[in-house]
Design goal:
With 81 residues, the protein is of the alpha+beta class. 35% of the residues lie in helices and 25% in strands. A hairpin with a 7-residue loop joins strand 1 and strand 2. It is elongated, with a radius of gyration of 23 Å. The relative contact order is 0.10.
């Protein structure tokens, strides 16, 4: 992990400065909260880490059937002619 110090108004460019680069700018520091702005091309997805974790958990839960559903399906397949 690269750790940098930046002041309000200063930026970090991720990439080579081409149109595909991502620029992160410090907008405001208020106590222990830092507001940042992210300028990225539309082809680059930008998400908060905690939302990605929630999405991954929700997807895993949705993809995992309940034991009752498995038992019901198993019984349906057994009795199917």
């Amino acid at each position: 992990m690269l750790v940098l110090s930046r002041r309000v108004g200063e930026s970090v460019v991720i990439g080579d400065g081409s149109p595909e680069a991502v620029t992160v700018t410090v907008l405001e520091v208020r106590g222990d909260v830092v507001r940042i702005g992210i300028d990225a091309p539309r082809s680059v997805a930008v998400h908060r880490a905690e939302l990605l974790a929630e999405l991954a958990d929700a997807n895993a839960e949705a993809a995992s059937p309940t034991p009752d559903a498995v038992a019901s399906l198993t019984e349906a397949l057994r009795t199917r002619k």
